[in-house]
Design a protein that fits this description.
cysteine-type endopeptidase activity, Neuraminidase, elongated, about 30% strand, about 550 residues, Rossmann fold, 6-stranded mixed beta sheet, 5-stranded antiparallel beta sheet, alpha+beta
Protein backbone atom coordinates (compact mmCIF):
# COMPACT_ATOMS: atom_id res chain seq x y z
CA UNK A 1 0.00 0.00 0.00
CA UNK A 2 1.32 3.40 -0.88
CA UNK A 3 1.22 6.10 1.76
CA UNK A 4 3.71 8.53 0.26
CA UNK A 5 1.54 11.63 0.41
CA UNK A 6 3.23 15.00 0.46
CA UNK A 7 2.30 18.66 0.78
CA UNK A 8 5.81 20.02 0.66
CA UNK A 9 5.03 22.08 -2.45
CA UNK A 10 2.09 23.82 -0.78
CA UNK A 11 2.90 26.87 1.35
CA UNK A 12 1.26 27.32 4.74
CA UNK A 13 -1.33 29.69 3.24
CA UNK A 14 -3.06 26.64 1.73
CA UNK A 15 -3.94 25.16 5.12
CA UNK A 16 -6.37 27.71 6.49
CA UNK A 17 -9.79 27.31 8.12
CA UNK A 18 -12.29 25.43 5.99
CA UNK A 19 -11.98 22.19 4.06
CA UNK A 20 -10.14 22.41 0.76
CA UNK A 21 -11.81 20.57 -2.09
CA UNK A 22 -12.04 20.15 -5.87
CA UNK A 23 -8.44 20.64 -7.04
CA UNK A 24 -7.93 20.93 -10.80
CA UNK A 25 -4.82 21.84 -12.72
CA UNK A 26 -3.92 23.02 -16.22
CA UNK A 27 -2.14 20.67 -18.60
CA UNK A 28 1.17 22.48 -18.17
CA UNK A 29 1.02 21.92 -14.42
CA UNK A 30 1.46 25.62 -13.62
CA UNK A 31 -1.99 26.78 -12.52
CA UNK A 32 -3.91 25.06 -9.70
CA UNK A 33 -7.53 25.87 -8.89
CA UNK A 34 -9.24 24.66 -5.73
CA UNK A 35 -12.11 25.59 -3.41
CA UNK A 36 -12.28 26.21 0.32
CA UNK A 37 -15.59 25.50 2.06
CA UNK A 38 -17.27 28.30 3.95
CA UNK A 39 -20.74 28.70 5.47
CA UNK A 40 -22.21 30.26 2.33
CA UNK A 41 -20.55 28.01 -0.17
CA UNK A 42 -17.02 27.66 -1.45
CA UNK A 43 -14.42 30.33 -2.07
CA UNK A 44 -12.33 29.73 -5.20
CA UNK A 45 -8.53 30.08 -5.17
CA UNK A 46 -5.80 30.09 -7.81
CA UNK A 47 -2.13 29.34 -7.28
CA UNK A 48 0.61 29.64 -9.90
CA UNK A 49 3.74 27.52 -9.81
CA UNK A 50 7.01 29.47 -9.90
CA UNK A 51 10.37 27.70 -9.92
CA UNK A 52 8.67 24.40 -9.17
CA UNK A 53 6.70 25.62 -6.14
CA UNK A 54 3.12 26.79 -5.76
CA UNK A 55 2.77 30.39 -4.69
CA UNK A 56 0.36 31.44 -1.92
CA UNK A 57 -3.16 31.19 -3.40
CA UNK A 58 -5.20 34.22 -4.39
CA UNK A 59 -8.98 34.25 -4.00
CA UNK A 60 -11.11 34.75 -7.12
CA UNK A 61 -13.93 37.22 -6.64
CA UNK A 62 -17.33 35.99 -7.84
CA UNK A 63 -20.44 38.15 -8.32
CA UNK A 64 -22.66 38.58 -5.27
CA UNK A 65 -25.62 37.02 -7.10
CA UNK A 66 -23.98 33.58 -7.27
CA UNK A 67 -25.36 31.81 -4.15
CA UNK A 68 -23.44 28.81 -2.85
CA UNK A 69 -20.85 28.35 -5.60
CA UNK A 70 -19.25 24.92 -5.56
CA UNK A 71 -17.29 22.26 -7.50
CA UNK A 72 -15.06 24.57 -9.61
CA UNK A 73 -12.76 23.15 -12.28
CA UNK A 74 -10.27 24.86 -14.58
CA UNK A 75 -10.12 23.74 -18.21
CA UNK A 76 -6.99 21.96 -19.40
CA UNK A 77 -5.84 25.05 -21.34
CA UNK A 78 -6.63 27.36 -18.42
CA UNK A 79 -8.99 29.61 -20.36
CA UNK A 80 -12.25 28.65 -18.63
CA UNK A 81 -13.46 28.00 -15.10
CA UNK A 82 -16.60 25.88 -14.71
CA UNK A 83 -18.60 25.66 -11.49
CA UNK A 84 -22.05 25.08 -10.05
CA UNK A 85 -24.23 27.51 -8.07
CA UNK A 86 -27.79 27.76 -6.83
CA UNK A 87 -30.35 29.30 -9.15
CA UNK A 88 -33.51 31.18 -8.19
CA UNK A 89 -35.37 27.93 -7.51
CA UNK A 90 -32.66 26.78 -5.10
CA UNK A 91 -31.58 24.14 -7.57
CA UNK A 92 -28.06 23.94 -8.92
CA UNK A 93 -26.95 25.01 -12.40
CA UNK A 94 -23.57 24.85 -14.09
CA UNK A 95 -21.85 28.07 -15.17
CA UNK A 96 -18.56 28.96 -16.75
CA UNK A 97 -16.34 32.06 -16.72
CA UNK A 98 -13.72 33.14 -19.22
CA UNK A 99 -10.33 33.57 -17.56
CA UNK A 100 -7.37 35.83 -18.32
CA UNK A 101 -4.85 35.35 -15.52
CA UNK A 102 -6.72 36.39 -12.38
CA UNK A 103 -9.21 38.45 -14.35
CA UNK A 104 -12.58 36.75 -14.87
CA UNK A 105 -15.41 37.51 -17.24
CA UNK A 106 -19.02 37.55 -16.12
CA UNK A 107 -20.31 33.99 -15.41
CA UNK A 108 -22.50 32.57 -18.13
CA UNK A 109 -25.02 29.80 -17.52
CA UNK A 110 -24.72 26.72 -19.70
CA UNK A 111 -27.44 25.44 -22.01
CA UNK A 112 -30.80 24.27 -20.65
CA UNK A 113 -29.96 20.93 -22.22
CA UNK A 114 -27.38 20.59 -19.46
CA UNK A 115 -29.15 22.54 -16.74
CA UNK A 116 -32.48 20.87 -16.03
CA UNK A 117 -34.99 21.89 -13.38
CA UNK A 118 -33.07 19.75 -10.97
CA UNK A 119 -29.57 19.99 -9.54
CA UNK A 120 -26.44 19.84 -11.72
CA UNK A 121 -22.89 20.06 -10.41
CA UNK A 122 -19.34 18.64 -10.66
CA UNK A 123 -18.50 19.78 -14.25
CA UNK A 124 -15.42 18.29 -15.91
CA UNK A 125 -14.53 19.48 -19.45
CA UNK A 126 -12.58 17.36 -21.91
CA UNK A 127 -9.14 18.52 -23.00
CA UNK A 128 -10.26 19.20 -26.59
CA UNK A 129 -13.25 21.26 -25.41
CA UNK A 130 -15.70 19.09 -27.33
CA UNK A 131 -17.49 17.67 -24.32
CA UNK A 132 -18.41 18.13 -20.67
CA UNK A 133 -18.95 15.48 -18.01
CA UNK A 134 -21.16 16.51 -15.13
CA UNK A 135 -23.41 15.16 -12.41
CA UNK A 136 -27.17 15.38 -11.93
CA UNK A 137 -29.17 14.59 -8.82
CA UNK A 138 -31.66 11.82 -9.48
CA UNK A 139 -35.30 12.97 -9.26
CA UNK A 140 -36.40 10.18 -6.93
CA UNK A 141 -33.57 10.58 -4.43
CA UNK A 142 -34.51 10.47 -0.78
CA UNK A 143 -33.34 13.56 1.16
CA UNK A 144 -31.41 11.30 3.52
CA UNK A 145 -30.01 9.16 0.70
CA UNK A 146 -29.20 11.38 -2.28
CA UNK A 147 -28.37 9.61 -5.51
CA UNK A 148 -26.45 11.06 -8.41
CA UNK A 149 -25.77 10.07 -12.00
CA UNK A 150 -23.01 11.09 -14.40
CA UNK A 151 -23.89 12.63 -17.79
CA UNK A 152 -21.94 13.67 -20.86
CA UNK A 153 -22.71 16.72 -23.04
CA UNK A 154 -21.27 16.87 -26.57
CA UNK A 155 -20.60 20.24 -28.23
CA UNK A 156 -20.51 21.14 -31.92
CA UNK A 157 -17.80 23.25 -33.59
CA UNK A 158 -19.51 26.47 -32.52
CA UNK A 159 -19.69 25.39 -28.88
CA UNK A 160 -23.41 24.65 -28.90
CA UNK A 161 -24.71 21.58 -27.06
CA UNK A 162 -25.48 18.81 -29.54
CA UNK A 163 -26.60 16.12 -27.12
CA UNK A 164 -26.73 15.21 -23.44
CA UNK A 165 -26.77 11.56 -22.37
CA UNK A 166 -26.50 9.68 -19.13
CA UNK A 167 -23.45 7.43 -19.04
CA UNK A 168 -24.55 3.82 -19.51
CA UNK A 169 -23.85 0.96 -17.17
CA UNK A 170 -21.59 -0.32 -15.81
CA UNK A 171 -20.89 3.24 -14.58
CA UNK A 172 -24.27 4.46 -13.33
CA UNK A 173 -25.25 1.42 -11.29
CA UNK A 174 -26.00 3.06 -7.95
CA UNK A 175 -24.95 6.63 -7.15
CA UNK A 176 -22.00 8.17 -8.95
CA UNK A 177 -20.65 11.72 -8.61
CA UNK A 178 -17.59 14.00 -8.98
CA UNK A 179 -16.47 12.87 -12.46
CA UNK A 180 -12.92 13.82 -13.49
CA UNK A 181 -12.06 13.10 -17.11
CA UNK A 182 -8.35 12.81 -17.90
CA UNK A 183 -6.74 14.49 -20.95
CA UNK A 184 -6.90 11.30 -23.03
CA UNK A 185 -10.71 11.56 -23.04
CA UNK A 186 -11.12 7.91 -22.05
CA UNK A 187 -9.92 7.66 -18.45
CA UNK A 188 -12.68 8.71 -16.04
CA UNK A 189 -12.38 8.94 -12.26
CA UNK A 190 -15.45 9.38 -10.11
CA UNK A 191 -16.98 8.70 -6.69
CA UNK A 192 -19.27 5.69 -6.46
CA UNK A 193 -21.30 3.78 -3.94
CA UNK A 194 -20.42 0.11 -3.94
CA UNK A 195 -24.09 -0.86 -3.61
CA UNK A 196 -27.48 0.49 -2.55
CA UNK A 197 -26.78 -0.75 0.97
CA UNK A 198 -23.60 1.29 1.36
CA UNK A 199 -23.46 4.90 2.55
CA UNK A 200 -19.79 5.62 1.87
CA UNK A 201 -18.36 6.49 -1.54
CA UNK A 202 -15.14 5.17 -3.04
CA UNK A 203 -12.91 6.55 -5.78
CA UNK A 204 -13.35 4.50 -8.95
CA UNK A 205 -11.86 4.55 -12.44
CA UNK A 206 -13.39 3.46 -15.75
CA UNK A 207 -11.70 3.24 -19.15
CA UNK A 208 -13.55 3.83 -22.41
CA UNK A 209 -13.20 0.98 -24.91
CA UNK A 210 -12.52 1.29 -28.64
CA UNK A 211 -16.25 0.89 -29.37
CA UNK A 212 -17.03 3.86 -27.07
CA UNK A 213 -18.48 1.58 -24.36
CA UNK A 214 -17.16 1.80 -20.82
CA UNK A 215 -15.17 -0.93 -19.13
CA UNK A 216 -16.02 -2.21 -15.68
CA UNK A 217 -15.06 0.45 -13.07
CA UNK A 218 -12.35 -0.54 -10.61
CA UNK A 219 -11.46 1.00 -7.24
CA UNK A 220 -8.36 3.15 -6.74
CA UNK A 221 -6.82 1.46 -3.74
CA UNK A 222 -4.12 4.08 -3.14
CA UNK A 223 -6.83 6.69 -2.51
CA UNK A 224 -9.53 4.57 -0.92
CA UNK A 225 -7.06 3.45 1.75
CA UNK A 226 -6.99 7.06 2.96
CA UNK A 227 -9.73 8.83 4.88
CA UNK A 228 -12.29 10.61 2.76
CA UNK A 229 -10.31 10.96 -0.46
CA UNK A 230 -11.72 12.29 -3.73
CA UNK A 231 -11.00 11.81 -7.46
CA UNK A 232 -7.64 13.21 -8.60
CA UNK A 233 -6.64 15.68 -11.26
CA UNK A 234 -3.44 15.19 -13.19
CA UNK A 235 -0.26 17.26 -13.53
CA UNK A 236 1.14 16.74 -17.01
CA UNK A 237 4.62 18.03 -16.25
CA UNK A 238 5.64 16.44 -12.94
CA UNK A 239 3.54 13.27 -13.29
CA UNK A 240 1.72 14.10 -10.07
CA UNK A 241 -1.91 13.59 -9.09
CA UNK A 242 -3.62 16.15 -6.88
CA UNK A 243 -6.65 15.37 -4.74
CA UNK A 244 -8.18 16.10 -1.34
CA UNK A 245 -7.69 13.99 1.74
CA UNK A 246 -9.47 14.82 5.00
CA UNK A 247 -10.18 18.34 3.80
CA UNK A 248 -6.62 19.15 2.74
CA UNK A 249 -4.84 19.18 -0.60
CA UNK A 250 -2.55 16.21 -1.16
CA UNK A 251 -0.47 14.80 -3.97
CA UNK A 252 0.83 11.43 -5.05
CA UNK A 253 2.96 10.30 -7.96
CA UNK A 254 0.73 9.22 -10.83
CA UNK A 255 2.26 5.76 -11.03
CA UNK A 256 0.94 4.96 -7.55
CA UNK A 257 -2.60 6.12 -8.28
CA UNK A 258 -3.38 3.26 -10.67
CA UNK A 259 -1.50 0.67 -8.63
CA UNK A 260 -3.61 -2.00 -6.95
CA UNK A 261 -3.00 -5.16 -4.95
CA UNK A 262 -6.47 -6.63 -5.51
CA UNK A 263 -6.97 -9.55 -7.92
CA UNK A 264 -8.89 -8.77 -11.09
CA UNK A 265 -11.78 -11.13 -10.26
CA UNK A 266 -12.23 -9.56 -6.82
CA UNK A 267 -12.36 -6.07 -8.30
CA UNK A 268 -15.18 -7.09 -10.59
CA UNK A 269 -17.24 -8.38 -7.66
CA UNK A 270 -17.08 -5.18 -5.63
CA UNK A 271 -19.58 -3.42 -7.92
CA UNK A 272 -22.13 -6.12 -8.73
CA UNK A 273 -22.22 -8.54 -5.76
CA UNK A 274 -21.44 -11.55 -7.92
CA UNK A 275 -21.36 -14.93 -6.17
CA UNK A 276 -18.22 -16.06 -7.92
CA UNK A 277 -20.04 -18.85 -9.77
CA UNK A 278 -19.35 -17.50 -13.27
CA UNK A 279 -18.19 -19.94 -15.88
CA UNK A 280 -14.62 -19.83 -17.13
CA UNK A 281 -15.50 -17.84 -20.26
CA UNK A 282 -17.19 -15.07 -18.22
CA UNK A 283 -14.30 -14.94 -15.78
CA UNK A 284 -11.77 -14.59 -18.56
CA UNK A 285 -13.82 -11.76 -20.11
CA UNK A 286 -13.76 -9.87 -16.81
CA UNK A 287 -10.00 -10.23 -16.57
CA UNK A 288 -9.63 -8.65 -20.00
CA UNK A 289 -12.06 -5.77 -19.63
CA UNK A 290 -12.06 -4.87 -15.95
CA UNK A 291 -8.52 -3.48 -15.70
CA UNK A 292 -7.29 -2.23 -19.07
CA UNK A 293 -3.58 -1.97 -19.47
CA UNK A 294 -2.17 1.53 -19.04
CA UNK A 295 1.37 1.02 -20.19
CA UNK A 296 2.84 4.44 -19.49
CA UNK A 297 2.12 7.94 -18.33
CA UNK A 298 2.17 9.24 -21.91
CA UNK A 299 -0.88 7.14 -22.80
CA UNK A 300 -3.03 9.69 -20.98
CA UNK A 301 -2.84 12.23 -23.77
CA UNK A 302 -0.25 14.74 -22.62
CA UNK A 303 2.22 16.11 -25.12
CA UNK A 304 4.30 18.22 -22.74
CA UNK A 305 5.98 15.63 -20.53
CA UNK A 306 9.39 16.96 -19.47
CA UNK A 307 9.13 19.53 -22.26
CA UNK A 308 9.00 23.29 -21.96
CA UNK A 309 6.92 24.87 -24.68
CA UNK A 310 9.04 27.51 -26.45
CA UNK A 311 7.63 31.04 -26.31
CA UNK A 312 5.53 32.28 -29.21
CA UNK A 313 6.20 35.86 -30.26
CA UNK A 314 3.29 37.99 -31.50
CA UNK A 315 3.09 41.65 -32.46
CA UNK A 316 0.46 44.27 -33.23
CA UNK A 317 2.06 47.14 -35.16
CA UNK A 318 0.00 50.29 -35.70
CA UNK A 319 1.00 53.30 -37.80
CA UNK A 320 -1.41 56.16 -38.54
CA UNK A 321 -0.72 58.83 -41.16
CA UNK A 322 -4.14 59.85 -42.46
CA UNK A 323 -7.03 61.32 -40.48
CA UNK A 324 -10.58 61.74 -41.76
CA UNK A 325 -11.18 64.94 -39.78
CA UNK A 326 -9.58 67.94 -41.49
CA UNK A 327 -8.99 69.52 -38.08
CA UNK A 328 -6.47 66.75 -37.25
CA UNK A 329 -3.22 67.13 -39.18
CA UNK A 330 -2.06 64.22 -41.30
CA UNK A 331 1.39 62.77 -40.63
CA UNK A 332 4.09 61.56 -43.01
CA UNK A 333 6.22 59.11 -41.04
CA UNK A 334 4.25 56.74 -38.73
CA UNK A 335 3.20 54.17 -41.38
CA UNK A 336 6.76 53.98 -42.75
CA UNK A 337 8.17 53.79 -39.21
CA UNK A 338 5.78 50.97 -38.37
CA UNK A 339 6.67 49.09 -41.57
CA UNK A 340 10.40 49.43 -40.89
CA UNK A 341 9.92 48.24 -37.31
CA UNK A 342 7.95 45.22 -38.55
CA UNK A 343 10.72 44.31 -40.98
CA UNK A 344 13.32 44.45 -38.22
CA UNK A 345 11.28 42.18 -35.96
CA UNK A 346 10.49 39.57 -38.61
CA UNK A 347 13.93 39.59 -40.26
CA UNK A 348 16.30 39.84 -37.31
CA UNK A 349 14.23 38.66 -34.32
CA UNK A 350 11.98 35.68 -33.54
CA UNK A 351 8.69 37.18 -34.72
CA UNK A 352 7.13 34.92 -37.39
CA UNK A 353 5.44 36.94 -40.12
CA UNK A 354 2.18 35.09 -39.61
CA UNK A 355 2.13 36.27 -35.98
CA UNK A 356 2.58 39.96 -36.82
CA UNK A 357 -0.51 42.06 -37.50
CA UNK A 358 0.18 45.35 -39.27
CA UNK A 359 -2.48 48.10 -39.21
CA UNK A 360 -2.07 51.08 -41.54
CA UNK A 361 -4.15 54.10 -40.51
CA UNK A 362 -6.84 51.91 -38.82
CA UNK A 363 -10.11 53.08 -37.37
CA UNK A 364 -10.92 52.69 -33.68
CA UNK A 365 -13.10 49.66 -34.47
CA UNK A 366 -10.23 47.96 -36.31
CA UNK A 367 -7.82 48.53 -33.42
CA UNK A 368 -10.24 47.11 -30.84
CA UNK A 369 -11.13 44.20 -33.13
CA UNK A 370 -7.42 43.33 -33.50
CA UNK A 371 -6.84 43.52 -29.74
CA UNK A 372 -9.80 41.16 -29.27
CA UNK A 373 -8.52 38.71 -31.90
CA UNK A 374 -5.09 38.48 -30.29
CA UNK A 375 -6.77 37.84 -26.94
CA UNK A 376 -8.53 34.83 -28.48
CA UNK A 377 -5.35 33.17 -29.76
CA UNK A 378 -2.83 34.17 -27.09
CA UNK A 379 -1.53 31.48 -24.75
CA UNK A 380 0.17 31.57 -21.36
CA UNK A 381 3.73 31.36 -22.69
CA UNK A 382 3.28 33.99 -25.43
CA UNK A 383 5.30 37.20 -25.76
CA UNK A 384 3.13 40.01 -27.14
CA UNK A 385 4.49 43.33 -28.41
CA UNK A 386 2.19 46.27 -29.19
CA UNK A 387 3.69 49.16 -31.20
CA UNK A 388 1.87 52.43 -31.87
CA UNK A 389 2.99 55.42 -33.94
CA UNK A 390 0.54 58.26 -34.58
CA UNK A 391 -1.18 61.15 -32.87
CA UNK A 392 -1.60 60.94 -29.14
CA UNK A 393 -3.25 63.37 -26.77
CA UNK A 394 -2.93 64.02 -23.05
CA UNK A 395 -5.98 65.60 -21.38
CA UNK A 396 -4.72 67.35 -18.26
CA UNK A 397 -8.27 67.93 -16.96
CA UNK A 398 -9.30 64.30 -17.16
CA UNK A 399 -5.80 63.07 -16.35
CA UNK A 400 -6.14 60.69 -19.30
CA UNK A 401 -4.10 59.89 -22.38
CA UNK A 402 -5.47 58.82 -25.77
CA UNK A 403 -4.47 57.36 -29.09
CA UNK A 404 -6.15 58.99 -32.08
CA UNK A 405 -7.28 56.44 -34.72
CA UNK A 406 -7.87 57.53 -38.30
CA UNK A 407 -11.58 58.16 -37.65
CA UNK A 408 -10.97 60.33 -34.57
CA UNK A 409 -12.72 63.69 -34.42
CA UNK A 410 -11.03 66.75 -32.99
CA UNK A 411 -14.10 67.86 -31.03
CA UNK A 412 -15.20 64.45 -29.73
CA UNK A 413 -13.44 61.65 -27.84
CA UNK A 414 -16.00 59.05 -28.99
CA UNK A 415 -13.59 57.39 -31.41
CA UNK A 416 -10.42 57.99 -29.43
CA UNK A 417 -8.73 55.02 -27.78
CA UNK A 418 -8.18 55.73 -24.12
CA UNK A 419 -4.89 54.63 -22.57
CA UNK A 420 -6.85 52.85 -19.83
CA UNK A 421 -8.54 50.71 -22.51
CA UNK A 422 -5.14 49.54 -23.79
CA UNK A 423 -4.12 48.93 -20.19
CA UNK A 424 -7.16 46.69 -19.62
CA UNK A 425 -6.28 44.59 -22.66
CA UNK A 426 -2.69 44.25 -21.48
CA UNK A 427 -3.92 43.09 -18.07
CA UNK A 428 -6.31 40.60 -19.67
CA UNK A 429 -3.98 38.96 -22.18
CA UNK A 430 -3.17 35.35 -21.46
CA UNK A 431 0.55 35.82 -22.07
CA UNK A 432 3.72 35.65 -20.01
CA UNK A 433 5.10 38.94 -21.29
CA UNK A 434 3.48 42.00 -22.86
CA UNK A 435 5.49 45.01 -24.00
CA UNK A 436 3.94 48.26 -25.17
CA UNK A 437 6.02 50.63 -27.31
CA UNK A 438 4.19 53.89 -27.93
CA UNK A 439 5.50 56.79 -29.98
CA UNK A 440 2.79 58.96 -28.46
CA UNK A 441 1.99 60.22 -25.00
CA UNK A 442 1.17 57.29 -22.76
CA UNK A 443 1.68 58.58 -19.25
CA UNK A 444 -0.53 59.96 -16.53
CA UNK A 445 -0.69 57.22 -13.92
CA UNK A 446 -0.44 54.20 -16.20
CA UNK A 447 3.10 53.51 -15.02
CA UNK A 448 3.80 52.09 -11.62
CA UNK A 449 7.30 53.54 -12.01
CA UNK A 450 8.66 55.82 -14.71
CA UNK A 451 12.10 56.61 -13.43
CA UNK A 452 15.20 55.96 -15.47
CA UNK A 453 17.00 52.79 -14.49
CA UNK A 454 20.69 52.88 -13.66
CA UNK A 455 21.27 49.51 -12.01
CA UNK A 456 22.30 46.53 -14.12
CA UNK A 457 19.55 44.24 -15.43
CA UNK A 458 19.04 40.88 -13.74
CA UNK A 459 19.99 37.66 -15.47
CA UNK A 460 17.99 36.98 -18.62
CA UNK A 461 16.73 33.63 -17.33
CA UNK A 462 15.23 35.23 -14.22
CA UNK A 463 13.58 37.96 -16.26
CA UNK A 464 12.10 35.39 -18.63
CA UNK A 465 10.61 33.20 -15.89
CA UNK A 466 8.41 35.84 -14.26
CA UNK A 467 5.42 37.47 -16.02
CA UNK A 468 5.85 41.08 -17.10
CA UNK A 469 3.75 44.00 -18.30
CA UNK A 470 6.09 46.80 -19.35
CA UNK A 471 5.90 49.90 -21.54
CA UNK A 472 8.36 52.26 -23.20
CA UNK A 473 7.12 55.55 -24.60
CA UNK A 474 8.58 58.42 -26.55
CA UNK A 475 8.02 60.94 -23.77
CA UNK A 476 5.71 63.06 -21.71
CA UNK A 477 5.07 65.91 -24.12
CA UNK A 478 1.52 66.41 -25.37
CA UNK A 479 2.72 66.04 -28.94
CA UNK A 480 5.64 64.23 -30.54
CA UNK A 481 7.27 65.37 -33.80
CA UNK A 482 6.30 63.71 -37.08
CA UNK A 483 9.89 62.55 -37.61
CA UNK A 484 10.38 60.57 -34.42
CA UNK A 485 13.82 60.57 -32.82
CA UNK A 486 12.52 57.91 -30.42
CA UNK A 487 11.65 55.46 -33.22
CA UNK A 488 14.86 56.27 -35.09
CA UNK A 489 17.10 55.21 -32.20
CA UNK A 490 14.86 52.29 -31.23
CA UNK A 491 15.29 50.82 -34.71
CA UNK A 492 18.99 51.68 -34.80
CA UNK A 493 19.75 49.86 -31.56
CA UNK A 494 17.75 46.80 -32.61
CA UNK A 495 19.74 46.59 -35.86
CA UNK A 496 23.10 47.18 -34.14
CA UNK A 497 22.43 44.70 -31.36
CA UNK A 498 24.75 41.69 -31.38
CA UNK A 499 23.44 39.92 -28.26
CA UNK A 500 21.34 36.78 -28.64
CA UNK A 501 19.03 37.83 -25.79
CA UNK A 502 18.16 41.43 -24.94
CA UNK A 503 15.66 42.56 -22.32
CA UNK A 504 13.29 45.43 -23.13
CA UNK A 505 14.80 47.41 -20.29
CA UNK A 506 18.36 46.92 -21.58
CA UNK A 507 17.21 47.95 -25.06
CA UNK A 508 15.62 51.11 -23.65
CA UNK A 509 18.70 52.00 -21.63
CA UNK A 510 20.83 51.68 -24.78
CA UNK A 511 19.08 54.55 -26.61
CA UNK A 512 17.45 56.69 -23.90
CA UNK A 513 20.29 59.20 -23.66
CA UNK A 514 20.54 59.47 -27.45
CA UNK A 515 16.86 60.47 -27.65
CA UNK A 516 17.26 63.06 -24.87
CA UNK A 517 20.38 64.51 -26.51
CA UNK A 518 18.66 64.93 -29.88
CA UNK A 519 15.11 65.97 -28.96
CA UNK A 520 13.07 67.74 -26.32
CA UNK A 521 11.44 64.52 -25.17
CA UNK A 522 12.34 62.37 -22.18
CA UNK A 523 11.48 58.75 -23.06
CA UNK A 524 9.88 56.65 -20.34
CA UNK A 525 10.10 52.98 -19.31
CA UNK A 526 8.40 51.15 -16.50
CA UNK A 527 5.86 48.69 -15.13
CA UNK A 528 2.28 49.21 -16.32
CA UNK A 529 0.39 49.60 -13.09
CA UNK A 530 -2.03 46.87 -11.89
CA UNK A 531 -1.74 44.60 -14.95
CA UNK A 532 -0.11 41.49 -13.47
CA UNK A 533 3.59 42.30 -13.69
CA UNK A 534 5.64 40.06 -11.37
CA UNK A 535 9.10 41.44 -12.02
CA UNK A 536 10.05 39.81 -15.31
CA UNK A 537 10.78 41.47 -18.62
CA UNK A 538 10.13 41.05 -22.34
CA UNK A 539 13.12 39.35 -24.00
CA UNK A 540 14.06 40.04 -27.63
CA UNK A 541 15.66 36.94 -29.16
CA UNK A 542 17.92 37.65 -32.12
CA UNK A 543 17.97 35.20 -35.01
CA UNK A 544 21.31 33.79 -36.07
CA UNK A 545 22.75 34.99 -39.39
CA UNK A 546 21.56 31.94 -41.31
CA UNK A 547 17.96 32.39 -40.16
CA UNK A 548 18.01 36.11 -40.92
CA UNK A 549 19.43 35.51 -44.40
CA UNK A 550 16.74 32.93 -45.16
CA UNK A 551 14.04 35.40 -44.12
CA UNK A 552 15.52 38.11 -46.34
CA UNK A 553 15.65 35.72 -49.29
CA UNK A 554 12.01 34.74 -48.74
CA UNK A 555 11.02 38.40 -48.65
CA UNK A 556 12.90 39.29 -51.82
CA UNK A 557 11.24 36.43 -53.64
CA UNK A 558 7.69 37.53 -52.80
Amino acid sequence: MTTGFSQTSFPKEFDLDGDERFPSITSDGNTLLFAREQKKGFDFFLSNKVNGKFMPPTQLILPDNMPYPTSPVISHDGRWIYFSAYNKGNNGDIYRMRRWGRRLAKPEILSSKINSRGYELFPSPTKDGKGLYFCRLKDKSEPTNLKYAIYYAAFDKKGNVESVNILPQPINLYSEKEPKIMPDGKTLFFMSKISDDEEEYEVMCAIKNEDESWGEPFPIDALNAQNYAHPPCMDGTNQMAYFTQEGKLAMLHWGHILKTDAPQEEIAKTRNNDTGEDNEEQTETKKQTTRPSISSFSDLGFDIIDFKQPPVYRAIIIGINEYQDDKIANLDRPVDDAAAFEEILTTHYTFPKENVISLKSPTREKIIETLDNVMEVAKENDHILIFYAGHGHWDSKRKAGYWLPSDAKAKSTANWVRNSTIKEYIASYKAKHVLLISDACFSGGIFKTRAAFTDAPKAINNLEKLPSRKAMTSGTLKEVPDESVFVKYLQKRLLENTEKYTSARALFDSFRDAVMNNSENVPQFGVINATGDEGGDFIFVKKDKVEAKEVQNDTSGD
